[in-house]
Amino acid sequence: MVRPLGFLVGLGFIAALLCAIFTTPLTNEPNASHAFHKEPKHLALSSDGLLPHWDKAKLQRGMQVYKEVCSACHSLNLVAFRDIADLGYSEGQIKSFAKSYDTIPSINPDTGEPSTRTGLPSDHFPAPYANETAARAANNNALPPDLSLITKAREGGKNYVYSLLTGFQNPPANLPKELQPPTGLHFNPYFANLNLAMAPPLHDGQVTFADGSPNDVKAMASDVAAFLVWTAEPKLVKRHQVGWAAFIFLLIFTGLTYMSYRNIWADKKH
Amino acid sequence: MSFPWAKPYEPQHPLMKWMDEKLPIPRLVYNATGPGYPVPRNLNYFWNFGVLAGAALVIQIVTGIVLAMHYAANAGVAFNSVEHIMRDVNAGWFIRYAHMNGASMFFIVVYLHIFRGLYYGSYKAPREMVWLLGVVIFLLMMATAFMGYVLPWGQMSFWGAQVITGFFSAIPVVGDPIRVWLLGGFAPDNAALNRFFSLHYLLPFVIAGVIILHIWALHIPGSSNPTGIEVKDEQDTVPFHPYYTAKDGFGVGVFLLVFVALTFFSPNLLGHADNYIPANPLSTPAHIVPEWYFWPFYAILRAFTFNFLWIDAKLWGVIAMFAAIALLFFLPWLDSSPVKSSNYRPLNRIFFWLLVLDVFVLGWCGKSPAEQPYVFLSQFCAAYYFAHFLIILPIISRIERPLPMPNSITEAVLAKHADDKSAATA
User: Fold this and answer.
1) Is 2.60.120.330 the CATH classification of the domain at B41-419?
2) What is the sign, positive or negative, of the torsion defined by CA atoms of B255, A155, B97, A223?
3) Could you give the ipTM of this predicted complex?
């Protein structure tokens, strides 16, 4: 009974699928933007690979770029001031860094009225806008995304961030009219829609680094991408260190279990 | 039940004797996974995956219970509470990544376990009940994994929940009310997140219960083996302990090596970038893709694009996707060949590997956007999937001429060693 019924059910599914095959066009609708879209460029960082480490000077420069440029529009909600100890700052430096922010929302202890206070190490980086409506109102209705997780939240990660920041250019001459950037948008072949609301944020020489490091657009983009790898995955280096310890331990453990397996089975053909 | 030559449990220590009279748990363990359970001597490494699936479940339950101590199932804070675990909880990043990749490891070993059963005919009499309970476990795992993926409340969590609960709205007339009732709202929101969390915590224990039944049902006929020939006498078997505890120990070691490599060195390899964006009901991701272990079924769902026989294409897709799993319940009766192992079934062996290829192509299509050539490939491969189980398998099990089989497990083992020896001397 099962087999004849199964046979009929199978034929039913196959008939439905054959009809689907013959009614589905075999060619895709042409998508002109594909031809102009580019895969991200590769950015090599010290946090890559199986033995990563943080380039602390680079992360500090990246944080400076975030603070002086990106933070005008982008929040960094998940990162606390205390976290930047990872970047090589001392406790005192973190305290004074936090204190340099004087717009942390608070309550006046005497009146209960809303007020502001200076930052503490336990505070998170303050957001540039009070809410989404304010952010959209200030940015031509576009919402600048929070950057805390951006290198994990986009395909390509650090490569994508670096390519986007260095990829602004004039639209190619053969770009079809419907793909031309409308007013207020900017052409960038690394962005999925080719045109994005963010204006080119970095310009050569925009940020001055205390250590005299190069400050052209590429260098700053690389520094801030490295910083955003850290904000997205602050435990990355520790994770690899623990991983190697666990892996080597297990390698020895597995070797021992293999030897005991061979030993126990030595008298049994199998 | 066990074979007559199974070692009897004879406690020596007075405490163990006392325990055996009051609550014979040591006796149960001794007879289930100890020297009291005789197992065929010729099992290959594919017989390790049942134990590995059990190990994966234990890892998921332990890491999951710890995660639940720090997670907040509220649509307003769920996403940030996961990030709190990743950043501020001691070793939270490890627990969370282990749980995330533990789910993938669980499915990897379970898929190998299922395909082992398909190749060696483990679903056949007298082990049909073992197979049926296994399919129940697989369904429970899929439900648990789906609901777990919703909990971080990222974009794929939200839109995955939207798509999967949308299956119910394909049911004519009552579909939409059912969906709203299941979600507790018109779209996934706090009510859905809370009930998914509750069920995600419950179902693993249900799985553990069905696993006990699965093992109980297995211990009645005893384990199958690569020849498919039933155990005939004592020399066909070895006691589970120490022989298979040692072999499973090695298997667990290899499993943990892969697990550790994935968790520590590439924890997001099998994930999707969009799930690091907080859920946003107003912004649909460009491609909604489920987790990798659902890709083949997702491809079957999307393969149906034609309103065949006045039934809506969407409903066809949902029925077919569930049927793709439900037909496994009938497999012991669809395949009528008396020979279990495909080692002795030349035709079935070919079609088995074609099925493996078919499922891989379906998986690749499920991952890819709904464009050509993936749409055609998923339609063709979905048709082949149903053809394999419902048409090809019943036919070949009648017309196939099996290869000559050894008389017993021991004969097969000794013949293999004679071959090895003659090969070595030649």
Assistant:
1) no
2) positive
3) 0.94
